[in-house]
Amino acid sequence: MILRLDPRRALVWRDPRTVQIGVDPVVVVVDDVGDGEARLIAALSTGVTRDGLDVLAELARVSPERVTRLVERLSPAFAPPATEATRPRLAVIGEATGATGRIAGLLASAGFRVVTAARGDDLDARDVAAVVLVSHHVIDPLEHTRWLNRDVLHLPVVFGELAVTVGPLVDPGLTPCLACVEQQRTDADPAWPAIGTQLWRTQAAADTELAATEAALEIVRILAERSPRQVRLDTETGERSERAWGPSPRCGCRGLELSAVTPIAAG
């Protein structure tokens, strides 16, 4: 196993014998650092095995006890062990290739394993922990149905004219689904199904690099908190608003046949 100080944390010297790891926040402060231990800290900055550290310690004339003590004191500042991924695998799905690619790249940089696809029919539900459905104006109802039936967590991201809407997060069988949202939108505006059909596969002006970045941040937050709320980000004013959707009395959400549901649009 490689011991390595977290490269995200600054290594600074408070004085010639006191080293600090991290500034905001401070992770650890180690005092009484001799020349030999300073060499060990330098090795830990780039990464070294424990056996390699012991060899360096012997050359630097640092006793085994002091090496053990140094490792213990620095342990809060070590990078996590390298694994295949630090966060679950996500599928980012959508034919809006610009937005889909940007969001996928940002989520990958946040530590997720990410797979992208225009459609989810070729993806195995066992390979993903959650799905992000990216679109312009309207969500493909077939994608919603697919992941609802597969019992996989899914989150819509819809770019509209002047806003991007993220959510609600659908946990099949536990939270309102996107059909619930659709039915309530239709209750509020009976013309909505016709409007949604006309918006299908049209370009959205809100699909910008900045909006994709803001949407990706919301995705990370919503998945971490398992928040069921929908977030709307106004791309002109920067205003962020939230709303909650309840279950539709006409939607069973479990095993419901959704093939006739019209697309879901940005609010």
Lay out the secondary structure.
Blueprint: E1 2-3, E2 11-15, E3 18-21, E4 28-30, H1 35-46, E5 48-49, H2 50-59, H3 64-74, E6 89-93, H4 97-109, E7 113-117, E8 130-136, E9 138-139, H5 141-149, E10 153-159, E11 163-166, H6 178-188, H7 192-199, H8 209-225, E12 230-234, E13 240-243, E14 264-265
Parallel strand pairs: 6-7, 6-8, 8-10
Antiparallel strand pairs: 1-5, 2-3, 3-4, 9-14, 10-11, 11-12, 12-13
Helix pairs in contact: 4-8
Number of helices: 8
How much of the polypeptide forms β-strand, as a percent range? 15-25%
Q: Report the structural category.
A: alpha+beta
The strand count comes to: 14
The CATH H-level superfamily of the largest domain is: NAD(P)-binding Rossmann-like Domain
What does the largest sheet look like?
7 strands, mixed
Overall shape: elongated
So, CATH architecture of the largest domain?
A: 3-Layer(aba) Sandwich
Number of domains: 2
Q: C-alpha Rg, in Å?
A: 25 Å
Looking at the structure, the CATH topology of the largest domain is Rossmann fold
The top-level CATH class of the largest domain is Alpha Beta
pLDDT averaged over residues: 86
Fraction of residues in H or I helices = 25-40%
